[in-house]
From TrEMBL:
Keywords, ordered alphabetically: Membrane, Transmembrane, Transmembrane helix
Segments crossing the lipid bilayer: 226-246
Cited Pfam families: PilN (PF05137)
Protein name, UniProt field: PilN domain-containing protein
Biased composition regions of type Low complexity, renumbered to the chain: 376-385
Region (Disordered): 371-399
């Protein structure tokens, strides 16, 4: 297990370093601070960062406890323990009373050392050393300090000061084990567990931990498990919410598609009806135009009656759909009929079909003559002089 943790430690350090140098932590701190300012004072502690650091300092056989960032001490006791109770190994009553209001899960104790006993050494290292910073500094410990790695507790922190290309600034913080071990031993005898050994910086701490990982106490954090369970539940609810939203959108889309299909069918029916109406209107217009431009049978009969002489009578008169006229009858002078029909405004292209034959029974000439109806030009209005007399609409017409 220790080997696995050591192999994963560089990766964790790299991820932690990448998180620290990114702008996201600063933004989240600012955003969280702004949100906490909107809450009542009683609620602000519920949304704190979690870890509640208290600083423990030793001087002149006297222990002093205060909260991080505050100058006023919360408790103090002597190295002699609690002489009233007669037990020098029992936890100090003052410490227990001072930390009674702090959640044990969030309680963190840091042993602060004075700057006079701590060695701080600036370093300039290549960027490749970031992945194994502690190991690199361990190899350089003999050269950078008068001590070996086995004689000191040390930590390394990166600095934000600019460095040359391919390099970065760091700071080595080291203290001899002979300085820290007696204090840790005395605290263990009093039943006090230390989470970090750090350097005092005014009312706060420097922010490093000189304790090696194997001496750092492990905290059981049931609230973290609860938070993880709540986060998983939130993610599950979010997934369900997104699923319901997608289902509703899909149902709405299907309903819209069905409505569109129904409207498309209606639109196709309307288009078919419109096309049928247009076709009917076109046909009706065509027929009306044909009827308007066609010559009525009554006019044609009137024209034939007026043109043919009284000595001519017709046995048969036919008009087909193409405007072809057939005259079959008898006349005393059939050859003159072409001259009679030459100037007609309704009959044109008159010609005999076959030969003119005499009829012995009547003494007249039997003939068969063909002609064409003189149709007016389509789309051109006819002049009043050229129009035939108005006739009833039910007398029949030829196209």
């Amino acid at each position: 297990m220790s080997t696995t943790m050591q192999s994963l430690r560089p990766l964790a350090e790299r991820m932690r370093r990448g998180w620290r140098v990114s702008p996201l932590p600063g933004f989240l701190r600012w955003w969280g601070g702004e949100l906490r300012q909107l809450l009542p004072m009683r609620w602000r502690g519920w949304f704190s960062s979690g870890a509640d650091w208290h600083l423990l300092q030793h001087g002149a056989a006297q222990w002093t406890l205060r909260r991080a960032g505050q100058r006023e001490p919360l408790a103090s006791w002597s190295d002699l323990g609690d002489p009233v109770a007669g037990d020098t190994h029992a936890p100090p009553v003052a410490l227990a009373a001072a930390l009674r209001s702090v959640d044990p899960e969030d309680r963190r104790l840091a042993l602060l050392l004075p700057s006079s006993v701590v060695l701080r050494r600036p370093l300039t290292l290549p960027l490749a050393a970031r992945d194994n910073l502690l190991q690199v500094v361990a190899f350089e410990m003999d050269r950078q300090t008068p001590f070996s790695v086995a004689q000191v507790y040390y930590a390394v922190r990166e600095l934000d000061t600019p460095a040359g290309a391919g390099r970065f600034h760091a700071e080595l913080v080291a203290v001899t084990r002979g300085t820290v071990d007696p204090l840790l031993t005395r605290l263990r005898e009093q039943g006090v567990s230390i989470d970090a050994v750090d350097l005092a910086m005014g009312d706060d701490r420097l922010g490093v931990n000189l304790l090696p990982p194997e001496q750092t106490p492990h905290h059981v954090r049931p609230r973290r498990r609860l938070n993880l369970a709540l986060a998983a539940a939130c993610m599950l609810l979010l997934a369900l919410l997104l699923g319901v939203w997608l289902h509703n959108r899909q149902a709405a889309l299907e309903q819209m598609q069905a409505d569109v299909d129904s409207m498309r069918g209606d639109a196709q029916q309307v288009a078919a009806l419109r096309q049928q109406l247009q076709d009917n209107a076109g046909a009706a217009g065509f027929l009306a135009q044909r009827k308007k431009n066609a010559i009525s049978m009554l006019s044609l009969l009137q024209e034939v009656t007026a043109r043919l002489p009284d000595t001519t009578w017709l046995e048969r008169l036919s008009v087909d759909n193409t405007g072809q006229i057939g005259f079959q009858g008898q006349s005393q002078q059939a050859a003159k009929l072409l001259d009679t029909l030459k100037d007609s405004r309704l009959i044109t292209d008159a010609s005999f079909q076959g030969s003119i034959q005499p009829d012995p029974s009547t003494g007249k000439e039997r003939f068969y003559l063909t002609a064409r109806v003189n149709q007016p030009a389509a789309g051109k209005p006819k002049s009043p002089a050229a129009e035939p007399p108005a006739e009833p609409a039910d007398d029949g017409s030829v196209p």
